[in-house]
Amino acid sequence: MACNQSFVGFEEGRSITCPPLFKGDSYFQWCHQMVFFIKALDFDLWEIIKEGFVEGPKKKKNMGSKDMGKAKLNVKAMHTLLCGLNDDVSKKVSSCKSAKEM
């Protein structure tokens, strides 16, 4: 079932699989909901957003396993954040290099 669909006779509520959508207003409410959504999805995702990720070597073969794990978490966190933004807002953060920067 897609995130924007609901069962007949039931009001649409929050989803545990789709992040809350930020449309450009009520940022603090969205942010609060997004923090819980990300922590519930994967607590390490929240840590990479909070702490930040400094990009290391560009080539995969030059990355250690710890750096590779952090790079994967950063990309997953960025994707999760982008899924919670409408098109207008996502264009504003599309050039960011890390989830923390977003």
Account of the protein in words:
The chain is mostly helical. It has a domain at 27-93. The chain has four helices and no strands. The protein has helices spanning 27-41, 43-51, 65-83, 87-93. α1 crosses α2 (43-51) and α2 packs across α3 (65-83). The longest helix is centred in the last third of the chain and has 19 residues, at 65-83. The chain is globular, with a radius of gyration of 16 Å. The two termini are 28 Å apart.
Q: Assign an overall shape.
A: globular
What share of residues is helical? Answer: 40-55%
Number of strands: 0
Percentage of residues in DSSP E strands? under 5%
Please tally the helical runs, counting DSSP H or I stretches of 4 or more residues: 4
SSE order = HHHH
The main pleated sheet reads as: none
Radius of gyration from CA coordinates:
16 Å
Structural class: mainly alpha
Brief description of this entry?
The chain is mainly alpha-helical and 102 residues long.
Fold blueprint:
Blueprint: H1 27-41, H2 43-51, H3 65-83, H4 87-93
Key attributes of the depicted protein:
102 residues; mainly alpha; 4 helices; 0% strand; globular
